[in-house]
Amino acid sequence: MGVATVQFYSHALGRRTTYDAILPDTGSGPYPVLLQLHGLFDDHHSWIHKSKLVHYVADMELIVILPDGATSGYLDWHTHSERLNRQNYETMIVDDLWSEVHRNFHVDDQKWGIGGLSMGGYGAIRLGLRHPDKFSSIWGHSSAFVIGDAIPSLGLGEIPGASLFELVPPLKGRTDLPELSFDCGTDDELIESNRDFHLLLDDLGIPHHYAEHTGGHTWEYWDEHVVESLAQHERILGVKREKLAW
Amino acid sequence: MGVATVQFYSHALGRRTTYDAILPDTGSGPYPVLLQLHGLFDDHHSWIHKSKLVHYVADMELIVILPDGATSGYLDWHTHSERLNRQNYETMIVDDLWSEVHRNFHVDDQKWGIGGLSMGGYGAIRLGLRHPDKFSSIWGHSSAFVIGDAIPSLGLGEIPGASLFELVPPLKGRTDLPELSFDCGTDDELIESNRDFHLLLDDLGIPHHYAEHTGGHTWEYWDEHVVESLAQHERILGVKREKLAW
Amino acid sequence: MGVATVQFYSHALGRRTTYDAILPDTGSGPYPVLLQLHGLFDDHHSWIHKSKLVHYVADMELIVILPDGATSGYLDWHTHSERLNRQNYETMIVDDLWSEVHRNFHVDDQKWGIGGLSMGGYGAIRLGLRHPDKFSSIWGHSSAFVIGDAIPSLGLGEIPGASLFELVPPLKGRTDLPELSFDCGTDDELIESNRDFHLLLDDLGIPHHYAEHTGGHTWEYWDEHVVESLAQHERILGVKREKLAW
Amino acid sequence: MGVATVQFYSHALGRRTTYDAILPDTGSGPYPVLLQLHGLFDDHHSWIHKSKLVHYVADMELIVILPDGATSGYLDWHTHSERLNRQNYETMIVDDLWSEVHRNFHVDDQKWGIGGLSMGGYGAIRLGLRHPDKFSSIWGHSSAFVIGDAIPSLGLGEIPGASLFELVPPLKGRTDLPELSFDCGTDDELIESNRDFHLLLDDLGIPHHYAEHTGGHTWEYWDEHVVESLAQHERILGVKREKLAW
Fold first, then answer.
1. This prediction's pTM
2. Whole-angstrom Cα distance, residue C77 to residue C158?
3. Would you tell me how many other CB atoms lie within 10 Å of the CB of residue D204?
């Protein structure tokens, strides 16, 4: 797989922003797309630099897109000026990046997979459930369901729609939702909110897969368990594999 | 010259951010540093991609650093949370990037040059005059002195110290200021505020160089006149040149 | 435009190699392709870093691909081992890179434009004329027609098909050739071989456009005259333009 | 850590070539250097993209340099022309890259560590033992001691000094050699030549560390065992660690 770092103009941010694309060496396309989100303090390179993700997808006919979500929580933040410091990250991803990837890469027409870790697990579940017309497969690792777990001082009440616990009750009975999975390490501070979210989904009867594993909020954990999320995305997206000959 | 794109952790932004470094092929260092700032809608790559800057510095023994200022105006923006969406761009540059460059590159101990265009011209003049302990040579091209010229809706009153017209009167009589120059195209909408700033500096007796040239707010203008700003930085920083042999 | 640096596996080189892609911000694709080749001592970044090429194509609905031709002359070099140090650059470009770009990017089905400077002008004319099934528009700047002009010690007799002067006589009367243009500076050491090639084409009755301009073998010359080659490629490839709104 | 991709001009190759640099987020330098080499079919990105190397060095005050060795075996290949297709990779690394890193990065004056896998393990051991004035710590993983194991058709007799089995006998009794270690997986086709080299060193009384582990010629093996080579380089180079605060 090749790894490309690309800049493009996002109207939602009012500026150029960056993403990485992992591009297949095999097949002839068009390819399905997986959007993979980073955590707080990380960037678009982190999954590539700190896990073996590129190795795991090396013989998959799949394009992986990794945006730079900064410390936005993949949320639209309202600011006081129209053009300076515009911070609409959700819109950047579901509108601008969606168009950019379809514009420039040889991708197929189906919905995308979406995954991530920590803040990016939160983002994957939130964006996936809010945009079931665009995403068919969700997997969050060590997700910061209550971003306040990690970030006590944040007044998320200012961001409408930030809470996953408020997002899901209205989804009860919906039949068009993406396949939804998440996992958390038993030594992770975020385990309680992961369990709470799992119980809430059970109460609501919203289908999902939840797993706990030994481990903490670490790259060793994410490198090990991204293999499981990739298997789900591969199945839902119908990703082909071709063993490289060299 | 080689061009490196680097990410580093900035405490002021609470996250990783990116800069480009143009690195010399000649000499043995340590090298002086020029910080070159981009305009609104551009990024750390824009000077490199849209002008011949790399060609102009090809035989100069100089490291050029190009940060990503987003649409910040190179200002510290105050936000409601401690870690999510932190936006202190001035501090990112004068504290974090300053340390990062000294940490990892073979740079000398003198003050840096600082330049830029439009929003980056504003940033260069503002940061240079606010931090005369760190910058010795300033050159702004087509500077957005009143950011409101370009961005009418911005309430810059919320950003203390944003106004260059309020910044300079207290500097009257100071003898430790950087060499200060700026230019503007006669077809540029920003020409009036450039003239106003020039007149204010004259009134205050603050030494500076101001030039007007035919041209507008375009890359043709910046590509032509960055040669003049490089000549000033070269002189003030004592940059050596070595003609490449191949 | 965004600029992506991508690596991919080339069977012709037996290894991963790198190219840059300039990707449009406008339109929705599929896009035509221009392959732009660098000169000796340069690499895939050189057109991007040392000219305003990215600026010139900023509102063009076009993907520009810039391979790394090393010092190969874009030729297949025969080596003594099957896998170590394999150096088949012509095959890398016309087979492997051709497939890679069609595999991963949103490109249309038409033939490509091809251009370049110096060694890359030679490569553009040679590859374009040898592969008229893949290229429809050729423009060489300051082309090293006789590579020996620049590189006296090279025994190019060892590379079958290296000579452009031997390549063109058999093409007399062919009606499927790409649009062919080239230019050279009157202060360029390569001017005599450019004139010789122009006269040979005239003698053979092979349609072409040849121009001479003031200037030497410099980036100032290439930055100025690449505008003319882009205009030809734009016309032949039917490139659309959309003025960016921001 | 930040990861920079840099191009520089190498006289030994007669062209620009590329390397990656992993740069510390901690400490203030100057830093020790580890040169880490890739295998056949890989490039300067492979250790970064396919293992967790960046994660492992994240709190180490160390600069890791990863050159692009192409399929050269890190050898000087003799070619027929002076400037076209020049292929002196050993000289590129020990002369040109050595100078480039000292020129541009904030590195200390001590010798470097050198490591690698497969062709890069061979290269690390060969370059380290041939240049004990520049390297103090060597570790080869799954090294292709007899490159012919992997590449039967290569006539390495044409490359003077290519054979490690011919290199080491004259080193008997030398007291200035780098710390020398290597390991191999018991399912790796290269295990026999690793054992042969180990026995030869034993016969010669040349101090070294050799280990075998379960596993094959895979990134799972290298990702697991690079931790051990890093520990040796850390010890020999006196690398400091600082736990990042965020």
1. 0.96
2. 9
3. 15
Report the candidate in D123, D130, D143 with the shortest Cα–Cα distance to residue D194: D143
How many Å apart are CA D94 and CA C201, to the nearest integer? 48
Give Cα B81 to chain centroid, integer Å: 28
CB contact under 8 A, C219 and B3: no
Q: Is the peptide bond before A160 cis (omega within 30 degrees of 0)?
A: no
Are A40 and B155 an interchain contact pair (Cβ–Cβ within 8 Å)? no
The answer to whether the complex's ipTM is over 0.95 is no
Q: How far is D129 from chain A (nearest CA, A)?
A: 30
Q: Give me the mean pLDDT over the D164-190 stretch.
A: 96
Contact B60, B31 (CB under 8 A): no
Q: Is C157 on the interface with B (CB under 8 A)?
A: no
How many C-beta atoms lie closer than 10 Å to residue A159's C-beta? 21
Q: What is the pLDDT along chain A (246 residues), one digit of tens a residue?
A: 899 999 999 999 999 999 999 999 999 999 999 999 999 989 999 999 999 999 999 999 999 999 999 999 999 987 666 677 888 999 999 999 999 999 999 999 999 999 999 999 999 999 999 999 999 999 999 999 876 544 443 445 567 788 899 999 999 999 999 999 999 999 999 999 999 999 999 999 999 999 999 999 999 999 999 999 999 999 999 999 988 765
Nearest residue, CB atoms, C45 vs list B3, B58, B223: B3
Spatial strand order in the sheet of A209-213: A2-10, A15-23, A63-67, A33-37, A112-117, A135-141, A179-185, A209-213
Give, for B200, the enclosing helix (H) or strand (E): helix B191-204
pLDDT, tens digit, 9 for 90 and up, residues D203-242: 999 999 999 999 999 999 999 999 999 999 999 999 999 8
Q: Which of D3, D45, D52 sits opposite A52 (nearest CB)?
A: D52
d(C-alpha A141, C-alpha A125), whole Å: 10
Confidence of residue C142 (pLDDT cuts 50, 70, 90): very high
Which chain A residue lies closest to C28 (C-alpha atoms)?
Answer: A103
Tokens found for residue D123: 């290269």
- Contact D129/D208 with Cβ under 8 angstroms? no
Q: What is the pLDDT of residue B154?
A: 46
The C-alpha atoms of residue B146 and residue B190 are separated, in whole angstroms, by 8
Q: C-alpha dihedral over D197, D199, D200, D205, to 10 degrees?
A: 120
Calculate Rg over the CA atoms of chain C: 17
Between the alpha carbon of residue B169 and those of residues B131, B202, D98, D222, the distances in Å are: 16, 11, 50, 62
Counting every residue written for chain A, the total comes to 246
pLDDT digits (tens, 9 = 90+) for B207-243: 999 999 999 999 999 999 999 999 999 999 999 998 7
Residue D154: which of C5, C70, C81 has the nearest Cβ? C81
Query: Are A163 and A205 in contact, with CB atoms under 8 Å apart?
Result: no
| Buried/exposed D99-124: b ≥16 CB within 10 Å, e otherwise | ebbbbbbbbeeebbbbbbbbbbbbbb
Q: How far from chain centre, in Å, is Cα C192?
A: 21
Subunit contact D51:A52, Cβ cutoff 8 A: yes
Chain C nearest CA to B10, separation (Å): 25
Nearest alpha-carbon partner for A114 in A142, A94, A92, A89 = A94
Q: Which of C145, C143, C216 is nearest to C186 (CA)?
A: C216
Rounded Cα gap, residues A149 and A121, in angstroms: 14
Chain D residues near residue C88 by CB distance under 8 angstroms: none
Structure tokens at A102: 């379809």
Q: How many residues does chain B have?
A: 246
CB contact under 8 A, B3 and C41: no
Q: How far apart are CA B70 and CA B172, in angstroms?
A: 32
DSSP H or E run through B87:
strand B87-88
> Do B40 and A84 lie within an 8 Å CB cutoff?
yes
Question: How many alpha carbons lie under 13 Å from residue B153 in its C-beta half-sphere?
Answer: 8
